[in-house]
Design brief:
By secondary structure, this protein is α/β, with parallel strands linked by helices. The protein is built from 9 helices and 12 strands. Helix 1 (24-37) crosses helix 9. The protein binds adenosine-5'-diphosphate and magnesium ion.
């Protein structure tokens, strides 16, 4: 974790995955929405330079405005459903979508998206990070001061192997893994039987190996995909659905685990002093 803090922001959490397409953005959006429903002030940064998809998932088409603040130009985040949003996609025109990012360029873009923004007071600022564990992800992980990383994986072996690399990468830069969320855990058939399409208990096994908490399990569900496409997070659209309740449990667990990490740090500090 770097020393620079984002003014007004209490906790910063990166949502990360070793692989793309495992539901990172879907989870980032619904986790943020669940934190909002719990009464927290929340923001979301779409830092996925390879496929910024949060504006679509939140149904946002406008771009941030600019304002002068203490003689500095600052961006005003776009606000939707009470979530303050900045997306790397706001920087890109459609024709730029094939842009090749280099580490320093991605890093300075992200810095601008975090520090030159009038966030106001936020309890949680969630980052949807680019998938993978290469130089770019490492650089971005060091660009922002992160309180923790939440790992998203499917139960499939190849996804787990990549998630494990993600955990080890963040350990290297002293960002604690808050826990693991297993997505696409199973499909609930009409007869009530769970079908484990991508294998069973993969997330749990990874948690056991590294003594990490399993923050929750999300089944494969058509309504979740549809809500993303419609720009209306499921948690807000159908707060009483079992899936939304699972996201609220995940939000509760994330808050609790971040609190534990915090008190652990304070104890370490007391020992040093
Ligand atoms: N649990 C789920 N059930 C059904 N569809 C899902 C689920 N999780 C993600 N999806 C869908 O899978 C696709 C990839 O998810 P996305 O969140 O964009 O992944 P990533 O950000 O990791 O690339 C999207 O179309 C999304 O709606
Ligand atoms: Mg994504």
């Amino acid at each position: 974790m770097t020393d620079n803090k984002i003014p007004g922001v209490k906790y910063t959490v990166a949502v990360v995955s070793g692989k793309g397409g495992v539901g990172k953005s879907t989870v980032a959006v619904n986790l943020t929405a669940a934190l909002k429903m719990k009464g927290f002030k929340v923001g979301l940064v779409d830092a996925d330079i390879y496929g910024p998809s949060i504006p679509i998932m939140l149904g946002v088409s406008e771009r941030p405005a600019v304002t002068k603040h203490n003689d500095k130009n600052l961006l005003i985040p776009v606000e939707k459903y009470g979530i303050k949003l900045m997306s790397i996609g706001f920087l890109l025109e459609k024709k730029d979508s094939a842009v090749i990012w280099r580490g320093p360029m991605a890093s300075s873009a992200l810095r601008q998206f975090v520090y030159d923004v009038l966030w106001g007071e936020l309890d949680y600022l969630i980052f949807d990070m680019p998938p993978g564990t290469g130089d770019i992800q490492l650089t971005l992980g060091q660009t922002i001061p992160l309180n923790g990383a939440v790992l998203i994986t499917t139960p499939q072996e190849i996804a787990l192997a990549d998630a494990e690399k993600g955990h080890l990468m963040f350990q290297k830069v002293n960002v604690p893994t808050v826990g693991i969320i297993e997505n696409m855990s199973y499909y609930l058939k009409d007869n009530g039987v769970k079908e484990y399409i991508f294998g069973e208990e993969g997330g749990k096994k990874l948690c056991d190996k590294y003594q990490l908490p399993l923050l929750g399990r999300i089944p494969i569900d058509k309504t979740l995909r549809e809500s993303g496409d419609a720009g209306y997070p499921l948690v807000l659209q159908r707060p009483e659905s079992p899936l939304s309740k699972e996201f609220i449990t995940i939000a509760n667990n994330t808050v609790a685990e971040l609190g534990k990490i915090d008190s652990g740090k304070k104890q370490d500090l007391e020992i040093i002093i």
